[in-house]
Please model this.
Amino acid sequence: MSTVRPLTSSTAAQSTGRGRTAERVIPSATVARLPIYHRVLLGWADAGRQTVSSEDLAGACGVSPAKLRKDLSYLGSYGTRGVGYDVRFLAYQISRELGLTEPRGVVIVGAGNLGQALVAYRGFASRGFAIVGLLDIHPDTVGQRFGAPETPITVGPMSDLEPIVADGRAQIGVIATPAEAAQQVCDRMVAAGLRSVLNFAPAVLHVPEGVEVRKVDLAVELQILAFHEQRRAEEHHQTMEHASLGKAINA
Model:
């Protein structure tokens, strides 16, 4: 995935910023972990949990307690010695830092299998996102309805993109098209005024300064997992060879 521009906490510091300092920069690596903390905290909040220690939260998120405390220190001093963190309050502070206290509109371009799966996913609303448009270029696809039965979305034509962005309904664009169409779609999103793009197409996008692109490439992730699987198999093979050699020597 592409690099995330570090966040500053100057705006948030003007509201309820316990322990904040103006214009404090949050490293990109910390920004990438904040959604994980947020997801775990929301799950605990829904289950009725009220407080959590840094050790428990770190373990649930797969990081060390020291790294967790360092990450949260960029947000402010929200823990209480001997008690830990208030689950709901910390979840809110993270959502505020991530800009999720108000729903963010998302417009998806590409109504194929991936686009349909995205609009059918029920977890966006609870994470602070609203799908405000599903667009496609093919006339036979425009007008079809996809998504959850209670909240279906009608596929619109690409000409709907500019009005959706202009009236403020969408702040994030999602590209779920074939690779050959991705750059053209991205250019059109940027021209319409979007500055945040999530790209599922297997293509490298070129964007002007000030536009953030996050890339999700499932094939690359699978290849990385395949690499680790191969390493484990090689290590197991070497272990077995050493064991056999040891038996032969001692025989």
Observations:
- The radius of gyration is 23 Å.
